[in-house]
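Encode chain A's predicted structure.
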Amino acid sequence: MFRAHGRKLLSNSVESNESNALIPAEQTAPVVPPPAPVGKPQKATTRKSLVQELLETVLLTALLFGVAKFSVQNFQVDGVSMVPTLQNNEMILVDRVSYHFHNGMPAHGDVIVFHAPPATGQSGKDFIKRVIGLPGDTIVVKPVGGVNHVFVNGRELSEPYIAAAPYDTYPQACTGRFTTCVGNRVPANDVFVMGDNRNFSFDSRMWGYVPKANIIGRALISYWPLSHLGLIHSQFSYTK
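Encoded structure for chain A:
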C-alpha cells in the first residue's frame, strides 16, 4: 500500500502595519490579502517502505520462477542414442510451452523429449529422439547405392547430423534392389522418431509411434558441459 501525504495548504500571512499610535477607524484602509498564485495544485507524493519493496520483489521472483518452472524443464541425457548431437550425461533445457501453440505437434526435425509409450516396455521413463515423421507421412529406410537412407513421402532426407547410416531397413521388407518397398504411414496424432545414432537407438523402428499426449516438449538448449553450450537445432531437409 502507498502512504500518501496530504496536500499542502498554501497559507498567506499578512504582516501588520500597526504602530503604537492610534488611527481613527474611518482612516484605516482595509487590508486586502494578495491574490493566491494561479497554477495546478501540487500532486500527492507517494513512498514505498523498504518492507513493501522487499515483499514486491519476493512476489515477482516467485511469479517468474513459477512461470519458468512451468515452461522450461531440465533433463540429463542417459545413453548414446542421440550421438553426435547429444552426448551421454549431457544436461539440456526443454521447452514445454511452444507446442501448445501448434496443436501439440512438433515440426519435422525437432528433437523432442517424451514419455515412453507402453510398447517400449519402459513406461515411466522419458526418451529423447528426433522427429522424422508427422501424421500422414510415409516412412521408409531402404538402400541406395548399397547404403540405407531414410525417405519421407518418397523423398530422401539429407541427414548430416547422424552418426552413421542405419544398418537395417524399415519396414524389414524394404531390402534388395528390386523389392517394391511400401512404407508405413504415421497415424493421426502420432509422430515417428529416430535417434541420431541410428545403429544404437531404440526408437519408432522397433516399437512404433509416439502419441501426441506423450510429448513433454522440444529440446531447446544444451548447457552442460560448457563445451556443448548452445541451441539444439531442428534439422530437416531433403536431398537435392
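DSSP finds two helices and 13 strands in the chain.
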